[in-house]
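User: I would dearly like some help making sense of a protein record. I have put the entry right below:
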Amino acid sequence: MAKLILSMDGLALNETVLTKERTTIGRKPHNDIQIDNLAISGEHAVVITILNDSFLEDLGSTNGTFVNGQSIKKHFLQNNDTIELGKYRLKYINEVTQQTSPADFEKTMILRPGAMSAAAEPVVTSTPAPMATASPSPAPAPMPTPAAPQQRTAPAAAAAAAPSLPLGVIQILSGGNAGRELELTKTLTTLGKPAVQVAVIARRPHGYFITHVEGAHLPIVNGKALDTQAHPLSDHDIIELAGVKMEFFLKN
Protein backbone atom coordinates (compact mmCIF):
# COMPACT_ATOMS: atom_id res chain seq x y z
CA MET A 1 0.00 0.00 0.00
CA ALA A 2 1.38 3.41 -1.01
CA LYS A 3 1.90 6.12 1.59
CA LEU A 4 3.08 9.71 2.03
CA ILE A 5 5.49 10.69 4.82
CA LEU A 6 5.30 14.38 5.78
CA SER A 7 8.48 15.99 7.08
CA MET A 8 10.10 19.38 7.64
CA ASP A 9 13.84 19.99 8.01
CA GLY A 10 14.40 16.24 7.97
CA LEU A 11 12.02 15.58 10.89
CA ALA A 12 9.12 13.21 10.10
CA LEU A 13 5.78 14.67 11.23
CA ASN A 14 3.21 12.09 10.18
CA GLU A 15 2.43 9.32 7.74
CA THR A 16 -0.66 8.93 5.55
CA VAL A 17 -1.58 5.65 3.86
CA LEU A 18 -3.24 6.24 0.47
CA THR A 19 -6.38 4.18 1.01
CA LYS A 20 -8.71 6.77 -0.55
CA GLU A 21 -9.15 7.44 -4.24
CA ARG A 22 -8.61 11.19 -3.63
CA THR A 23 -6.24 12.40 -0.90
CA THR A 24 -6.28 16.19 -0.59
CA ILE A 25 -3.37 18.32 0.67
CA GLY A 26 -3.74 21.89 1.92
CA ARG A 27 -3.92 24.39 4.76
CA LYS A 28 -7.67 24.10 5.48
CA PRO A 29 -8.79 21.60 8.16
CA HIS A 30 -10.95 19.51 5.80
CA ASN A 31 -7.90 18.27 3.86
CA ASP A 32 -6.73 14.70 4.37
CA ILE A 33 -3.19 16.02 4.87
CA GLN A 34 -3.41 19.40 6.58
CA ILE A 35 -0.32 21.61 6.59
CA ASP A 36 -1.05 24.69 8.71
CA ASN A 37 1.34 27.12 7.07
CA LEU A 38 0.67 30.31 5.12
CA ALA A 39 2.92 29.12 2.27
CA ILE A 40 0.42 26.32 1.63
CA SER A 41 -2.82 27.11 -0.19
CA GLY A 42 -6.16 26.21 1.38
CA GLU A 43 -6.58 23.44 -1.19
CA HIS A 44 -3.07 23.00 -2.54
CA ALA A 45 -2.88 19.62 -4.29
CA VAL A 46 -4.57 16.23 -4.59
CA VAL A 47 -3.26 12.68 -4.99
CA ILE A 48 -5.51 10.38 -7.04
CA THR A 49 -4.85 6.70 -6.40
CA ILE A 50 -6.10 3.99 -8.76
CA LEU A 51 -5.09 0.41 -8.07
CA ASN A 52 -1.38 0.58 -7.18
CA ASP A 53 -0.71 3.86 -8.98
CA SER A 54 -1.00 7.48 -7.88
CA PHE A 55 -1.23 10.81 -9.73
CA LEU A 56 -0.34 14.13 -8.11
CA GLU A 57 -2.17 17.24 -9.33
CA ASP A 58 -1.59 20.85 -8.30
CA LEU A 59 -4.93 22.60 -7.62
CA GLY A 60 -3.84 26.04 -8.77
CA SER A 61 -1.85 26.74 -5.62
CA THR A 62 -0.25 30.14 -5.04
CA ASN A 63 3.31 28.90 -4.52
CA GLY A 64 3.19 25.82 -6.71
CA THR A 65 3.88 22.12 -6.25
CA PHE A 66 7.29 20.60 -6.93
CA VAL A 67 8.42 17.00 -7.36
CA ASN A 68 12.13 16.25 -7.09
CA GLY A 69 12.87 19.94 -7.66
CA GLN A 70 10.68 20.32 -10.75
CA SER A 71 7.47 22.38 -10.87
CA ILE A 72 4.51 20.22 -11.89
CA LYS A 73 0.84 20.53 -12.71
CA LYS A 74 0.17 16.80 -12.98
CA HIS A 75 2.65 14.05 -12.21
CA PHE A 76 2.63 10.26 -12.17
CA LEU A 77 4.21 9.40 -8.81
CA GLN A 78 6.97 6.82 -8.55
CA ASN A 79 8.52 5.17 -5.50
CA ASN A 80 10.76 7.59 -3.51
CA ASP A 81 9.49 10.75 -5.26
CA THR A 82 9.72 13.82 -3.03
CA ILE A 83 6.85 16.32 -3.17
CA GLU A 84 7.96 19.81 -2.10
CA LEU A 85 5.44 22.28 -0.65
CA GLY A 86 7.27 25.30 0.73
CA LYS A 87 9.49 24.05 3.58
CA TYR A 88 7.55 20.80 3.83
CA ARG A 89 8.35 17.53 2.11
CA LEU A 90 6.09 14.57 1.31
CA LYS A 91 7.96 11.36 0.51
CA TYR A 92 5.97 8.97 -1.70
CA ILE A 93 6.63 5.34 -0.80
CA ASN A 94 5.19 2.50 -2.87
CA GLU A 95 7.17 -0.69 -2.48
CA VAL A 96 4.42 -2.87 -3.92
CA THR A 97 5.37 -4.43 -7.24
CA GLN A 98 3.19 -2.45 -9.59
CA GLN A 99 1.26 -4.03 -12.43
CA THR A 100 2.18 -1.11 -14.63
CA SER A 101 5.17 1.13 -15.19
CA PRO A 102 5.17 4.67 -16.59
CA ALA A 103 5.88 3.18 -20.02
CA ASP A 104 2.61 1.21 -19.79
CA PHE A 105 0.49 4.37 -19.74
CA GLU A 106 -1.11 5.75 -22.85
CA LYS A 107 0.11 9.28 -23.43
CA THR A 108 -2.62 11.86 -22.91
CA MET A 109 -4.74 11.93 -26.03
CA ILE A 110 -5.17 15.48 -27.34
CA LEU A 111 -8.68 15.48 -28.74
CA ARG A 112 -8.45 17.92 -31.60
CA PRO A 113 -8.51 17.28 -35.36
CA GLY A 114 -5.47 15.45 -36.61
CA ALA A 115 -3.78 15.28 -33.24
CA MET A 116 -5.04 11.95 -31.94
CA SER A 117 -2.56 9.21 -32.65
CA ALA A 118 -3.75 5.70 -33.32
CA ALA A 119 -3.41 3.30 -30.42
CA ALA A 120 -0.23 1.28 -30.44
CA GLU A 121 -0.71 -2.34 -31.32
CA PRO A 122 -0.20 -4.64 -28.33
CA VAL A 123 2.92 -6.72 -28.37
CA VAL A 124 1.95 -10.38 -28.47
CA THR A 125 4.55 -12.82 -27.26
CA SER A 126 3.84 -16.31 -28.47
CA THR A 127 5.65 -19.49 -27.49
CA PRO A 128 6.10 -21.89 -30.43
CA ALA A 129 4.93 -25.42 -29.95
CA PRO A 130 7.80 -27.86 -29.32
CA MET A 131 9.03 -29.65 -32.44
CA ALA A 132 8.54 -33.41 -32.46
CA THR A 133 11.81 -35.34 -32.66
CA ALA A 134 11.93 -37.24 -35.95
CA SER A 135 12.54 -40.99 -35.71
CA PRO A 136 15.63 -42.20 -37.56
CA SER A 137 13.69 -45.24 -38.81
CA PRO A 138 11.48 -44.85 -41.87
CA ALA A 139 8.93 -47.16 -40.29
CA PRO A 140 6.03 -45.36 -38.60
CA ALA A 141 6.39 -45.18 -34.85
CA PRO A 142 3.84 -47.08 -32.81
CA MET A 143 0.98 -45.09 -31.41
CA PRO A 144 1.72 -44.13 -27.76
CA THR A 145 -0.63 -45.25 -25.08
CA PRO A 146 -2.77 -42.27 -24.04
CA ALA A 147 -1.68 -40.97 -20.66
CA ALA A 148 -4.24 -40.71 -17.94
CA PRO A 149 -5.54 -37.15 -17.74
CA GLN A 150 -3.87 -35.21 -14.98
CA GLN A 151 -6.07 -33.76 -12.32
CA ARG A 152 -6.24 -30.02 -12.67
CA THR A 153 -4.96 -28.13 -9.68
CA ALA A 154 -7.33 -25.82 -7.86
CA PRO A 155 -5.70 -22.54 -9.01
CA ALA A 156 -5.67 -23.73 -12.63
CA ALA A 157 -9.27 -24.82 -12.42
CA ALA A 158 -10.26 -21.49 -10.91
CA ALA A 159 -8.39 -19.59 -13.63
CA ALA A 160 -10.12 -21.62 -16.33
CA ALA A 161 -13.50 -21.07 -14.73
CA ALA A 162 -13.04 -17.29 -14.33
CA PRO A 163 -14.55 -15.44 -17.30
CA SER A 164 -12.08 -13.24 -19.17
CA LEU A 165 -12.82 -9.53 -19.39
CA PRO A 166 -13.80 -8.48 -22.94
CA LEU A 167 -11.57 -5.85 -24.51
CA GLY A 168 -12.91 -2.33 -24.05
CA VAL A 169 -12.82 0.13 -26.93
CA ILE A 170 -13.37 3.89 -27.16
CA GLN A 171 -14.80 5.20 -30.46
CA ILE A 172 -14.75 8.95 -31.13
CA LEU A 173 -18.19 10.18 -32.25
CA SER A 174 -17.61 13.91 -32.83
CA GLY A 175 -14.93 16.28 -34.03
CA GLY A 176 -12.18 15.81 -36.56
CA ASN A 177 -11.31 12.36 -35.23
CA ALA A 178 -14.84 10.95 -35.51
CA GLY A 179 -14.74 7.27 -36.30
CA ARG A 180 -11.32 6.66 -34.75
CA GLU A 181 -11.08 3.81 -32.23
CA LEU A 182 -8.75 3.27 -29.28
CA GLU A 183 -8.46 -0.20 -27.75
CA LEU A 184 -8.07 -0.08 -23.97
CA THR A 185 -5.24 -2.57 -23.75
CA LYS A 186 -3.40 -0.72 -20.95
CA THR A 187 -4.19 -0.95 -17.26
CA LEU A 188 -4.72 2.83 -17.31
CA THR A 189 -5.59 4.97 -20.35
CA THR A 190 -5.62 8.77 -20.07
CA LEU A 191 -8.01 10.79 -22.25
CA GLY A 192 -8.70 14.49 -22.65
CA LYS A 193 -7.06 17.88 -23.08
CA PRO A 194 -4.33 18.85 -20.57
CA ALA A 195 -5.25 21.91 -18.47
CA VAL A 196 -8.86 21.63 -19.74
CA GLN A 197 -10.31 18.25 -18.81
CA VAL A 198 -8.59 14.91 -18.31
CA ALA A 199 -9.97 11.54 -17.19
CA VAL A 200 -8.46 8.10 -16.82
CA ILE A 201 -10.06 4.76 -17.69
CA ALA A 202 -8.83 1.89 -15.52
CA ARG A 203 -9.01 -1.71 -16.72
CA ARG A 204 -9.75 -3.75 -13.60
CA PRO A 205 -10.34 -7.51 -13.28
CA HIS A 206 -14.09 -6.96 -12.95
CA GLY A 207 -14.62 -4.18 -15.49
CA TYR A 208 -13.66 -0.72 -16.76
CA PHE A 209 -13.92 2.42 -14.59
CA ILE A 210 -13.60 6.10 -15.50
CA THR A 211 -12.23 8.65 -13.00
CA HIS A 212 -11.93 12.44 -13.23
CA VAL A 213 -8.30 13.60 -13.00
CA GLU A 214 -8.06 17.23 -14.11
CA GLY A 215 -10.28 20.17 -14.98
CA ALA A 216 -13.10 22.23 -13.49
CA HIS A 217 -15.81 20.19 -15.20
CA LEU A 218 -16.49 16.53 -14.53
CA PRO A 219 -16.90 13.96 -17.32
CA ILE A 220 -20.45 13.24 -18.48
CA VAL A 221 -21.68 9.68 -19.02
CA ASN A 222 -25.06 9.14 -20.68
CA GLY A 223 -25.99 12.78 -20.09
CA LYS A 224 -25.18 12.78 -16.37
CA ALA A 225 -22.16 14.47 -14.81
CA LEU A 226 -20.06 12.14 -12.67
CA ASP A 227 -18.71 12.81 -9.20
CA THR A 228 -15.06 12.51 -8.19
CA GLN A 229 -15.25 8.76 -7.53
CA ALA A 230 -14.51 5.99 -10.02
CA HIS A 231 -17.57 5.20 -12.18
CA PRO A 232 -18.08 1.77 -13.77
CA LEU A 233 -18.56 1.79 -17.54
CA SER A 234 -21.18 -0.33 -19.28
CA ASP A 235 -21.33 -1.49 -22.87
CA HIS A 236 -22.30 1.38 -25.24
CA ASP A 237 -22.02 4.15 -22.63
CA ILE A 238 -21.69 7.62 -24.20
CA ILE A 239 -18.92 9.74 -22.66
CA GLU A 240 -18.54 13.50 -23.09
CA LEU A 241 -15.04 14.73 -22.30
CA ALA A 242 -13.31 17.99 -23.23
CA GLY A 243 -16.07 18.82 -25.72
CA VAL A 244 -15.84 15.49 -27.53
CA LYS A 245 -18.39 12.68 -27.53
CA MET A 246 -17.20 9.11 -27.54
CA GLU A 247 -18.69 5.67 -27.08
CA PHE A 248 -17.36 2.94 -24.83
CA PHE A 249 -18.13 -0.59 -25.98
CA LEU A 250 -16.91 -4.13 -25.34
CA LYS A 251 -15.39 -6.07 -28.19
CA ASN A 252 -16.48 -9.70 -28.21
